[in-house]
Amino acid sequence: MDKTFPSTKLALPLWGAGVALCLLVFLGGLGWWAGYQTDPYVQEVLHLTGNLNRGQAIFQTNCAVCHGLAGDGNIGPSLHGVSQHKSSPRLIEQVISGKTPPMPKFQPNAQDMADLLRYLESL
C-alpha cells in the first residue's frame, strides 16, 4: 500500500490553484492602490510639501475633539504611529472618506490635507 500523501496527481493541481488564489488576492488587493494612483486629489496632496505647524493647527481645530490634543486618543483612537500602519494614500482616504463612523467626511483643500498628513506622520 502506497502511503505517500498527497499524491502527485492531487498535489500539483492544488498547489497551482493555491498559487492562482494567492495571485488573485494580491492583485485584487492592489486595486485599492490603483485607485489612489489615479485620484487627482490624492496625487495633488502627495506632491505637496506639508507644513508640520499648520498641520498641527488643522488637527487641533478639526480632529482633537475626538483624537485628543496630541493625537493620543479620546473618543476616537490614538493616532500615534498611525503612519506605520497606513500608507499616506490610505491616511488621506481615511480622513476624506467618512467611511469610519462616527468620523465625519472631511475634505480640506490639498495644501491643508498635505499639512495635516505631515502632522499625522509625525505622531
Structure description:
Helices cover 65% and strands 0% of the residues. The longest helix is centred in the N-terminal third of the chain and has 31 residues, at 8-38. The protein is built from seven helices and no strands. It has two domains: 1-38; 39-122, Cytochrome c-like domain (Cytochrome Bc1 Complex, Chain D, domain 2).
What kind of sheet is the major sheet? Answer: none
* Spatial gap, N to C terminus: 63 Å
Q: How much is the radius of gyration in Å? A: 21 Å
Give the name of the CATH superfamily of the largest domain: Cytochrome c-like domain
Number of helices: 7
Task: Supply the CATH architecture of the largest domain.
Answer: Orthogonal Bundle
CATH topology of the largest domain: Cytochrome Bc1 Complex, Chain D, domain 2
Task: Assign a percent range to the helix content.
Answer: 55-70%
Strand content: under 5%
Task: Give the ordered list of helices and strands.
Answer: HHHHHHH
Provide the number of structural domains: 2
Would you count the extended β strands for me? 0
What sort of overall outline do the alpha carbons produce when their principal axes are compared? globular
Given this structure, which CATH class of the largest domain is correct? Mainly Alpha
Low-confidence stretches: 20-25, 27-34
Q: What's the short version?
A:
By secondary structure, the protein is mainly α. It has helices at 8-38, 40-46, 52-62, 64-67, 82-85, 88-97, 110-122.
Output the keywords.
single chain; 123 residues; mainly alpha; 2 domains; 7 helices
